[in-house]
């Protein structure tokens, strides 16, 4: 795995979307629903170039210049283009697949003579919403009829709006101060009003005027919940303290509740992105970014949780942009790359993770780099909790575990931390297993297994995208250390393995047999036989056939392992056949017969197998006893002592006759002809 030696935990996408930069003849627009950039040259007469994240969302066309373009957006399916050129209407033109633009344009005006369109958003392929200063109007677009049909409307004095395409949530600002919020949720053909609420302001100006602006409010989806993210430049009732970010969570698409406050401890100009459920706060003056995770623990007053940055503020990783080479114009020695100015005044930030520099003509996606955070987050339990919430983080989590479980002097002093770390891992693991079990049963998760851990449970993390299970730990972590024989390292490794099994048991997770095997192998390898005996005697290690077989294989190193294995197999009601095989392989023929009789399987065992094993001992007494044992079985079953042809015992009958044809009496025979097996 390649290491990241720098400490930049944010980066810009390596291949930005390039577009024609803003100029006197070119205007640039961005549709944050489809993530498309429109470069409109000369009102569209000399061309409109659309760049999107995919080839399907990238196109170019020409249109008539009917005045300056205010806004331009495609429908989600790219079939209809909406263009706003005036404050009272929006024009539409159909796109006919490979045939390009339709020649017929159609238009829709807003209601009311003095109504002004503040903007519009597509909610579905054939539905569009006009947001005006008097409310919202929902229309159905009918491309084949070149017309629109009014569906729903909602009247409200509106200052500005923000829209989240992921949740189809529209937030309207009203009131003199701009802090009266009306959330609207759009479903096909319908507008659902959520409870109106008021955003708290840091300072209320006198006289009252609009002070909560669109640029300070962001709609996002955090851990599956629609959220309203508000930048408050001056906290309420606090002077001399930096800005903060207040998060309102939309609960069940009904009400907004203030739930989190992010403390920035800075002031100035900020911008917000959301990457992998993390809130990224960019600060222009210091040219750094801060990382917040609302799923991490913080200070709480019982209503709101207060959060500090996950790591120290750091700049975005420097980015160099390749310059296009125009033939015959590039000067000798002119660099082929330029270093981009980060946190430029020309930057415009869009949700969830887009940065656009319109003058440079670049659109980047902000990405998260996990490896640098391994060294920046000192609390390893906090680090692992953080990483488990991130997409594609399993290799990094494994690397952290490998590092902290190295049998070094430093790590041996962190035993309590390691135990707590295992509880954090297995808490998430248990939640995952519970969800899996409930999904298989076709019922929703009930909120938790009945668990009473030996120590306080780690916080429950719901739906973690990364789960470290027993197979991951065995393959990538524990097996790496199993063969080491460092001074004192053996005890540390054994302790780590037992502590992991303890944690699994506390969370009622069945321990896989390969972990038990690894523990036993480690104990034998480091000659910890007394501990091994105790683990087996007190059933710390669960009984299983594979484990019993492993114990049998360790007999040469630890003779008592043989009897421990037999005891384990006997406890396993399904282990009778294995016990018989083990005893026969050890030439313990008569004990095997006693065991057969004790478990009541005399009629099921193979006479040929026992006679073959008895003959191999070269002990005529043993062979005689076994032969007579099965003769008695034949007498009981068939009324005579002969072996059936299907039993394939002819060679053993001849061997018996050869050995005992002249013998009248044999030790072990009683007066009534019964064979008594030695006790």
Automatic annotation (TrEMBL):
Entry GO terms, CC: late endosome membrane; lysosomal membrane; Mon1-Ccz1 complex
Domain Regulator of MON1-CCZ1 complex N-terminal: from-to ranges: 28-148
GO biological process, one term: regulation of autophagy
Domain of life: Eukaryota
Every Mic1 domain range: 390-645
SUPFAM superfamilies to which the protein is assigned, alphabetical: Tricorn protease domain 2 (SSF69322)
PANTHER family in the record: COLON CANCER-ASSOCIATED PROTEIN MIC1 (PTHR12897), REGULATOR OF MON1-CCZ1 COMPLEX (PTHR12897:SF4)
Protein name: Mic1 domain-containing protein
Organism annotation: Diploptera punctata (Pacific beetle cockroach)
């Amino acid at each position: 795995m390649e290491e990241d030696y720098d400490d930049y935990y944010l980066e810009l996408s390596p291949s930005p979307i390039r577009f024609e930069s803003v100029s006197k003849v070119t205007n640039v627009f961005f549709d944050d629903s489809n993530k498309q950039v429109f470069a409109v040259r000369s009102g569209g007469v000399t061309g409109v170039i659309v760049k999107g994240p995919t080839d399907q969302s990238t196109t170019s066309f020409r249109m008539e210049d009917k005045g300056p373009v205010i806004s331009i957006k495609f429908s989600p399916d790219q079939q209809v283009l909406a263009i706003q050129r005036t404050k009272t209407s929006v024009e539409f033109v159909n796109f006919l697949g490979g045939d390009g633009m339709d020649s017929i344009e159609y238009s829709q005006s807003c209601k009311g003579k003095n109504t002004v369109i503040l903007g519009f958003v597509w909610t579905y392929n054939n539905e569009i919403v006009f947001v005006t200063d008097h409310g919202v109007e929902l229309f159905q677009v009918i491309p084949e009829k070149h017309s629109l049909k009014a569906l729903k409307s909602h009247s409200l004095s509106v200052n500005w709006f923000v829209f989240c395409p992921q949740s189809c949530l529209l937030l309207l600002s009203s009131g003199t101060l701009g802090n009266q919020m009306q959330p609207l949720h759009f479903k096909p053909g319908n507008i659902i009003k959520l409870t109106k609420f008021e955003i708290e302001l840091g300072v209320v100006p006198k006289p009252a005027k609009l002070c909560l602006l669109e640029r300070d409010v962001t709609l996002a989806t955090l851990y599956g919940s629609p959220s309203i993210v508000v930048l408050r430049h001056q906290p309420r009732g606090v002077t001399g303290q930096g800005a903060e970010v207040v998060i309102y969570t939309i609960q069940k698409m009904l009400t907004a509740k203030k739930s989190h406050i992010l403390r920035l401890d800075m002031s100035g100009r900020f911008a917000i992105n959301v990457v992998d459920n993390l809130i990224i706060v960019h600060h222009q003056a210091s040219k750094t970014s801060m990382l917040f995770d609302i799923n991490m623990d913080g200070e709480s007053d019982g209503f709101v949780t207060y959060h500090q940055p996950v790591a120290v503020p750091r700049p975005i990783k420097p980015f160099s942009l390749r310059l296009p080479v125009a033939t015959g114009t590039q000067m000798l020695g002119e660099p082929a790359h330029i270093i981009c100015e980060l946190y430029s005044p020309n930057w415009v930030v869009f949700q969830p993770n887009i940065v656009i520099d319109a003058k440079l003509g670049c659109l980047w996606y902000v990405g998260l780099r996990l490896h640098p955070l391994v060294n920046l987050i000192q609390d390893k339990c906090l680090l692992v909790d953080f990483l488990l919430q991130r997409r594609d983080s399993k290799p990094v989590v494994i690397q952290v575990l490998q590092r902290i479980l190295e049998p070094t002097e430093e790590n041996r002093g962190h035993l309590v931390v390691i135990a707590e770390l295992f509880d954090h891992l297995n808490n998430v693991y248990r939640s995952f297993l519970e969800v899996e079990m409930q999904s298989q049963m076709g019922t929703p998760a009930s909120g938790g297994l009945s668990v009473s851990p030996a120590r306080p449970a780690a916080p429950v993390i719901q739906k973690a995208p990364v789960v470290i299970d027993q197979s991951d730990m065995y393959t990538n972590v524990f097996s790496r250390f199993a063969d080491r024989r460092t001074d004192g390292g053996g005890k540390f490794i054994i302790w780590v393995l037992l502590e992991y099994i303890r944690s699994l048991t506390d969370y009622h997770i069945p321990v896989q047999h390969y972990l038990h095997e690894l523990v036993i192998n480690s104990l034998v390898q480091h000659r910890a036989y007394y501990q091994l005996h105790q683990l087996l005697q007190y059933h710390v290690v669960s009984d299983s056939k594979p484990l019993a077989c492993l114990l049998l294989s360790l007999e040469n190193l630890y003779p008592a392992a043989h009897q421990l294995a037999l005891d384990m197999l006997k406890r396993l009601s399904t282990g009778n056949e294995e016990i018989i095989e083990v005893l026969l392989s050890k030439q313990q023929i008569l004990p095997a017969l006693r065991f057969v009789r004790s478990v009541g399987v005399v009629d099921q065992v193979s006479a040929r197998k026992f006679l073959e094993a008895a003959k191999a001992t070269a002990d005529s007494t043993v062979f005689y006893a076994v032969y007579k044992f099965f003769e008695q079985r034949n007498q009981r079953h068939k009324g005579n002592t002969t072996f059936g042809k299907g039993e394939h015992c002819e060679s053993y009958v001849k061997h018996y006759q050869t050995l005992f044809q002249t013998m009248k009496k044999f030790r072990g025979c009683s007066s009534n002809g019964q064979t008594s097996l030695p006790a």
